Amino acid sequence: MLARVPWALLVLIAAFFVPAAGSRFYTFVANDIVIWALFATSLNLLVGYTGLVSFGHAAYFGIGAYTTGILLKKVGLPFLLAFPAAGVVAGLCALVFGFFCVRLTRIYFAMLTLAFAQIVWAICFKWNEVTGGEQGMPDIPYPRFDVVDRIVSAVPALGSYRTSDYYYFTCLVLVALCIWALRRIVASPFGRMLTTIRENAERAEFIGVNVRRYELAAFVIAGVFAGLAGGLFGIFNRGVFPDFAYWTKSSEVLIMTLLGGMGTFYGPAIGALVLICLNQQIVSYTEYWPLILGSILVVLLFVFPGGLAGAMLALRRRLVRKTPREVQTGA
């Protein structure tokens, strides 16, 4: 019975009511979680389903953020064109970088992804004319919601919302569509082939599968969705800065994926939720938050080696197996 509950849909519906709480802080945190959930889910396509550990996934996040920021602020394109452009440009860069990366395996692959990410960061840091260099690009404008605001204002029952609330709703819808698309990709024959490659790449190659081509395709798709997440984050952050492409961003999203459970589809989103909430709570109590947060993460990873989502799935299987026995015994 638990398996039939549409948890993802219920969570999405509940997320729409966050601004109704009246606190801008809750909306801010929820928006942060939503964007990072997409970023972590895109990485999971590589790490969890293809078995490719990337230390440079933030490169595509940063490329997407800069693409959207430049098109919105300097070129003056509308959001409907600037947002998909983030995915296109990030995907093209992932195609170029991935062409070289997939020729290597394991630690060599991971280190090459990190090297390319550092190149992207260096370009963002030094190219003052385009990226703003060390100062970045502040004051990225929000999309215009004039028409939506007039419609909402005409219906008193809908309440009143700020521009940041409208942007939160926009992110929620776009991220939901992106995660739905990733879900379809994972459940497709292509996704099942990625899992086969993760389990035994040599055997897959022996039966005639072009492993490098599948790995490159997964690399590009992951880069596209990371770029889309970066495009949303640049506007949400009201500025784009070189640290978006720095290796620390890659480590954060990798921790989210491991914490939530790589190889489980919704695990990275759960990891993003837990890590951001822990960060917000600990920062408010002590200045030594990195030490405490690191200790909590170590404990969680030891207690739940399969991630939080893996622990939830194991609990659900146990409950499903237990229920028929209780019925037979009359419990």
Secondary structure tally, helices: 15
Order of strands across the widest beta sheet? 1-2
**Total discrete domains:** 1
Q: What is the average per-residue confidence, as pLDDT, rounded to a whole number?
A: 87
Low-confidence stretches: 325-331
Strand percentage: under 5%
Instruction: Give the number of DSSP strands.
Output: 2
String of helices and strands: HHHHHHEHHHHHEHHHH
Indicate the structural class: mainly alpha
Helix content: over 70%
Oligomeric status: single chain
The separation of the N and C termini measures 17 Å
The biggest sheet, with number of strands, parallel, antiparallel or mixed sense and barrel status, is: 2 strands, antiparallel
Report the principal-axis shape. globular
| Estimated radius of gyration | 21 Å
Describe the secondary structure blueprint for this structure.
Layout: H1 7-15, H2 24-50, H3 58-75, H4 79-101, H5 106-126, H6 128-131, E1 137-138, H7 146-154, H8 163-187, H9 189-199, H10 201-206, H11 211-236, E2 239-240, H12 247-260, H13 267-283, H14 289-303, H15 307-329
